[in-house]
Amino acid sequence: LQFSFDQSHEFHPSSPLLWWWWISTIPRLMIRGRRLILYFKKMELKLEVNIYRLQLYKFTCMIFLASHWVGCLFYYLARLSDFDSTTWVFRYQLVMQEFDIHTSTVAQHYIVMLFKGFNMLTNTSYEGVVPNNAQEVLFSICVMFGQVGLSAYIL
Asked: Nearest Cα to 118, choosing from 56, 68, 74?
């Protein structure tokens, strides 16, 4: 089977192949996350490593990865609804005229998605687009709960 992830949306969001592909990536993600944690633990034990720089790097990675995951899941929720008028992606293109769901590149989609992730984790609400359907509202609540946990961990 050949998978094509271009802008033509060849796979419908409810396609079983897409669901199996998404589920099959979860164990790989968990293995990579565990490997990253072990790497940081090993680096903390080395005497020649500046611990403050390592903590700053670890903190930056944690914030970026959390924003990436939140943005990806928000984008996936919008894709499950086929980017209809109730999704944040559709409403974002109304606010940001340079962005279009069908003609923008994958990099532009990723930047918008990453912006959504950072925006949700920092709770700054710069985009002017709020959740409008039940899935986005429920996921927003989960992200806000995680944001409180992340803030408590940092403090």
From this structure: 68
Angle, CA of 19, 131 and 13, to the nearest 5°: 20
82 touches 135 (CB < 8 A) = no
How many angstroms separate the CA atoms of 155 and 149, rounded? Answer: 10
Q: Output the CA angle 91-93-86, nearest 5 degrees.
A: 25
Distance between CA atoms of residues 117 and 94, nearest Å = 19
**Nearest residue to 91 via CA among 135, 130, 126, 118:** 130
Instruction: Decide: 113 and 74 in contact? Cβ < 8 Å.
Output: yes
pLDDT at 2 over 60: no
pLDDT tens, position by position, 9-28: 454 555 677 677 777 888 88
Distance from CA of residue 11 to its chain's centroid?
A: 20
Residue 96, phi-psi category: left (phi > 0), alpha (psi -120 to 50), beta (remainder): beta
- pTM score: 0.69
